């Protein structure tokens, strides 16, 4: 819905109202009530209010000695418009006030624009929208009868192009969502020893759910177009849910008893190889310890006598005992997941904001 308050300026000639001022005491113009002078029957075709002929019984019409009649009825226009929220809140919209001369055919009464179809001299600044441009189009409305004949009525379209002001939405919609998404990634730098890791991400998730509900309520309700911001909010919700699942899994690994090298199953071997990759990605100091555990798992278990040099045993840096606990595994994986979530969050936020701004600028109405 598009609402605008203003007035229409109508002007036409009626030869029946022509008189000689010299014969009427030099009277150049006069006023008459609407029911005393003929006026065109105009209808706002896309009005959301009661559909009827534009009229105002208490507003007189001015006419001069040349038969020119002027009528300026004020009106609150509430019309239907197609809204495209793809790039909300950086969107641009256009809406038209369509006026049809419904009472007479185009061959009987035609409609035309004045010199300035839409006058914005008296327009006031709006808190949400900026008028970028206007356009006026003269067209026809064709009606097909039951017998196949057609009737053509004159039609005028007053188009107004508007652009949304984004300062309010940047401060109250975009910024809180972006900041909250980073809080999800920060979950994985909270120490396990604090015992608050799971409660922290659950609190962030609940805060994010409330924030997303408020943000979703500010989106214009429509199913014709899908908002990029709406899809972004859905991805944020899924990312937070995945963060909760990862936190629970890491917490289970952290509370596992025993050492990694005590297990001989193949699954622990896969974990160690992935752990080595994760440690390399985050440049962890545990890389050497993981390599030692992998080397020990790859060697056969045989009894050996350690060689001595003098009274001191000769040590091999690769064969010395290297025990790695599951708590250390959880810490390495925790830092790796933090890096992954932080990278995904930055990419997602930058991609969404750039997509909104660039898409809105490239879209031409």
From TrEMBL:
The chain crosses the membrane at residues 168-192, 198-216, 228-254, 336-360. GO terms for cellular component: membrane. Its main location: membrane. InterPro entries: Neur_chan_lig-bd, Neur_chan_lig-bd_sf, Neur_channel, Neuro-gated_channel_TM_sf, Neuro_actylchol_rec, Neurotrans-gated_channel_TM, Neurotransmitter_ion_chnl_CS. It is found in: Membrane. Residues 173-273 form the Neurotransmitter-gated ion-channel transmembrane domain. Gene3D superfamilies: Neurotransmitter-gated ion-channel ligand-binding domain, Neurotransmitter-gated ion-channel transmembrane domain. Residues 2-166 form the Neurotransmitter-gated ion-channel ligand-binding domain. It holds the Pfam family Neur_chan_LBD. Keywords: Ion channel, Ion transport, Membrane, Transmembrane, Transmembrane helix, Transport. GO terms for molecular function: extracellular ligand-gated monoatomic ion channel activity; transmembrane signaling receptor activity. It is a multi-pass membrane protein. Belongs to the ligand-gated ion channel (TC 1.A.9) family. This is Uncharacterized protein.
């Amino acid at each position: 819905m598009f609402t605008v308050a203003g007035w229409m300026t109508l002007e036409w000639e009626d030869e029946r109202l022509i008189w000689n001022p010299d014969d009427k005491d030099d009277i150049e113009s006069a006023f008459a009530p609407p029911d005393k002078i003929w006026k065109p029957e105009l209808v706002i075709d896309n009005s959301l209010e009661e559909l009827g002929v534009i009229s105002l019984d208490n507003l007189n019409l001015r006419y001069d000695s040349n038969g020119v009649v002027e009528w300026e009825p004020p009106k609150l226009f509430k019309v239907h418009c197609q809204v495209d929220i793809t790039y909300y809140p950086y969107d641009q919209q256009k809406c038209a006030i369509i006026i049809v001369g419904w009472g007479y055919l185009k061959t009987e009464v035609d409609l035309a624009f004045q010199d300035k179809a839409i006058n914005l001299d008296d327009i006031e600044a709006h808190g949400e929208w900026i008028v970028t441009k206007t356009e006026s189009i003269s067209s026809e409305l064709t009606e097909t009868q039951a017998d196949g004949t057609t009737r053509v009525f004159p039609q005028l379209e007053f188009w107004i192009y508007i652009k949304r002001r984004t300062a309010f939405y940047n401060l109250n919609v975009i910024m809180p969502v972006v900041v909250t998404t980073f809080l999800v990634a920060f979950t994985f730098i909270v120490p396990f020893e604090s015992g608050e890791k799971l409660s922290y991400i659950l609190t962030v998730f609940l805060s994010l759910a409330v924030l997303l509900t408020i943000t979703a309520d500010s989106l214009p309700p429509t199913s014709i177009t899908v908002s990029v911001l709406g899809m972004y909010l859905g991805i944020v919700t899924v990312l937070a849910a995945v963060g909760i699942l990862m936190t629970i899994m890491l917490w289970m690994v952290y509370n596992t008893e025993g050492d990694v090298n005590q297990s001989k199953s193949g699954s622990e071997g896969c974990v160690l190889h992935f752990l080595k990759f994760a440690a390399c990605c985050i440049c962890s100091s545990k890389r050497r310890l993981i390599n030692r555990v992998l080397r020990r798992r790859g060697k056969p278990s045989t009894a050996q006598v350690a060689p001595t040099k003098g009274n001191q045993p000769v040590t091999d840096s690769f064969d010395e005992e290297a025990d790695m606990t599951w708590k250390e595994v959880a810490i390495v994986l925790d830092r790796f997941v933090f890096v992954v979530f932080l990278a995904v969050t930055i990419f997602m936020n930058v991609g969404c904001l750039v997509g909104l701004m660039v898409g809105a600028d490239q879209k031409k109405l």
